[in-house]
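Worked Example 4.2. Read the sequence first, then its C-alpha cells.
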Amino acid sequence: MMDVVQRALRPLSQPPSAPGWNHAQMSDLLGNTERLPAAVLIGLRDGDEPRMVFTVRTDHLSSHAGQVSFPGGRTDPGDENAITTALRESEEEIGLDRTLVTPMGYLDCFETISGFSITPVVARIAPEARFRPAPDEVAEVFEVPLAFFLERDNLKRYTMEFRGHRREMVEFDHSGHRIWGATAAMLENLLQRMEHA
C-alpha cells in the first residue's frame, strides 16, 4: 500500500507552490489577500497495516479548538522548506523525533479559510516512534488505519453555508473522531491522487 502512496505523491525534488488547488473557492471567500505559508505532516506509521497519525487540538486554543488535525503550523522565517516546518511543528506538538521520520513526497498546496497556504508533507514514521503531546496545544494523538480511508463508504459528503457561499465539504468519522474541514480535504486529495497513480 505504501508503494501506491509513493506513486501518488509529488516527488521531494518538486515541491508544490501556491496557489492551492482550492484557490478559486477560497478567493470567493478571502479575495486575493496573501496566504501565509504553512505545512503539515501527514505521517504514516510503518507496519503491516500503515496507520495515519492525527492530533486533537485542545479546547482552549483560539482557532480550531477541539478539532482533529495533522501536526503542523505556520512557516517560521528560519525554516528552510516545508519539510523543515512540518518536522519542527511535529516535534513541538507531539514530541515526534524527526530522526524517525522519512519524508516521501508532497500533496498539492491547500488554502484554508484562516488565510494559510498549506503544503502537506507525506512521510513514513518508524514503528518505534512514540508521541508526547504538548499539553497546551494537543489534547490527544490517535492513529487510523490507512485502509479505513480507502473504503469509499467511509467518505461522507455534505454542503455547508459559510459567509453567504455554499461549500462542498467532506468528512470521515472514526471511533468517535470527526475528521473534517481542511484535514479531510487534504485526505481526499491524497485519495484522488492514489486512484490515478
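Now turn to a second chain, presented in exactly the same format:
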Amino acid sequence: MRTTDTTSTPASTTTFPRYSHEIAAAVTLPSGARALVAPGPLTVAGGIALTTACAALSTRLALLAFLADPDADEPTGITGHDPFTDPMPPALVGSGPEPDRERVRRAGDRCVDAWRRWSQDRDSGQSVVGVAGALGLAAWCAWALGSEARARTRARYALDLRSHDPLAQLVLRSCTLGVRAAWRG
C-alpha cells in the first residue's frame, strides 16, 4: 500500500517560478525591448526575442512602460513588473505623458510582424503564449495611438490564440466601452 506524504510543501507555495516561459521572458526582456524600437526591419532573432519577452504579463507591462516613457532610449536595467511592489504603469490605462507616437507605432507593427512570421512557420520555436502576448501588446499600441478598430482586431487575434490573455482582454474591453487614452501633452 502506498501512502501520500502530506507534510511536503504544496507546489503553489514553493519559491520556484511556475512556468518556464516566465523565466525565458525575464531573460530576454532587454533583447525584446530593443527589438521593439531598433531601427530597420525586425530580424528573425529580434522576432524570437520579442515573442519570448511577451510570454509573461509582468514583462509585457515592463515593455509597455518602456514604450510609453518618452525619456527611455535604451532598455538598460529593464526588469519585469512586480505586481506586489511596483505600481501599475500609468500608460496601461493611457495616462501620463504622451509617448512618442512613431515609437509606439513601430513597436505595434513589429509585434504584428512577429505574429505573421510565426503564422508562416509555426515550427520557429516561438510559443503560442508569446505570440499571443505580442499581439496583445500590439493591440495596446494601437489603442494608445487612438486606433480603436486596429486595437480591437489585434486583440481578437491574440484572444483567438490564447483566449485568456489579460492584456488583450483589457484592450478589447477598453475599446468596447469607448475608453480612450488621455495622454498629457
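Notes for the reader: The helical segments are 20-37, 44-53, 57-68, 101-120, 128-144, 148-161, 166-177. The chain has one domain: 19-73+93-177.
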